[in-house]
Structure formats: structure tokens, C-alpha cells
Specification:
alpha+beta; 6 helices; 22% strand
Length: 150
């Protein structure tokens, strides 16, 4: 049931502009899925859905692969500036703290930015762990993050 529901979520957001979890839950109800807002929220996290700019200066849900590279850099810069609280490093790791509820979205954008030095991210509610390889490039990645922060 979960796999079918998530396939339907992907179909819905690829064909329609969905701005909120409530809109997505309504569309799923119309398609015959009995879901709660909590279920929709879990699906969004598990599927790695992100919000991208829509044509009317609003945002809509999207699968990360739908993001265009030119929008991705702007989105990364905006998310860094709006959500980052602190950045620290040790050895080959960088820890980014965000305001609560924003780490997952920022990590998804970073994952899709294709920074060669970042071999992976792990995100919680307000913390992102960046794994950097080789560890000698940690200062360069920190500099790039600082530059984007403005």
C-alpha cells in the first residue's frame, strides 16, 4: 500500500502544482487513498521531496531530479541564508545547524548540487552532517559555504 501511495504522490506532483501537504492529502483522498496529514508528511520525507519555485512566485513540491541546475544554485544560496544557524567542522565532517525543520530540505538541495567533495549528507530536523572526501578539501568546502551565506 505504501509503495502504491508513494507512486501516486510522485504522479500527482509531476502532473499538478501542489503547494501544501493538505493539497496533497486531498488529491490522495480523491484517488482513493485514506491518508492523514502525518502519513503525507512521512511520505514527503521518505521520498526526499523538496519545494521548488513555481511560475507564480510561490513554491510547489517536486522530486529532486526535477530541479533545474540554475534554480538549484539560487535555492541553495537562499536556503543557506534563511536557515543556517551555525557551521562547524572536524576532520572530514562538516556539521550545519539550521532552524528547526529545515535540515532535510537543505540537505536534499546539497545532495543535488553535485559538489564532488561532498560524498554524502545525513539530515535530522535541525542538523546536517556533510561527509567530505578527501579531508584536505574541508577548508575549501567551508569557504564555498561561507561565500554562499554572503
Amino acid at each position: 500500500m505504501k509503495a502504491r501511495r508513494q507512486m501516486k504522490v510522485q504522479e500527482i506532483i509531476s502532473k499538478q502544482i501542489i503547494r501544501t501537504q493538505e493539497e496533497l492529502a486531498d488529491k490522495l483522498h480523491q484517488a482513493g487513498f485514506d491518508v492523514t496529514q502525518a502519513t503525507v508528511s512521512r511520505d514527503i520525507k521518505e521520498m526526499g521531496l523538496i519545494k521548488v519555485p513555481s511560475a507564480d512566485d510561490d513554491y510547489r513540491y517536486a522530486v529532486p531530479s526535477e530541479v533545474h541546475p540554475s534554480n538549484l544554485q539560487d535555492r541553495l544560496k537562499r536556503l543557506l541564508r534563511e536557515t543556517v544557524v551555525s557551521i562547524n567542522d572536524t576532520e572530514s565532517l562538516i556539521v550545519i545547524r539550521t532552524i528547526p525543520g529545515n535540515a532535510h530540505a537543505l540537505a536534499a538541495v546539497m545532495d543535488n548540487s553535485n559538489w564532488e567533495e561532498v560524498i554524502g549528507t545525513v539530515a535530522g530536523d535541525d542538523t546536517i552532517l556533510l561527509v567530505i572526501k578527501p579531508k584536505e578539501v574541508v577548508p575549501a568546502v567551508l569557504e564555498r559555504l561561507t561565500t554562499l551565506l554572503g
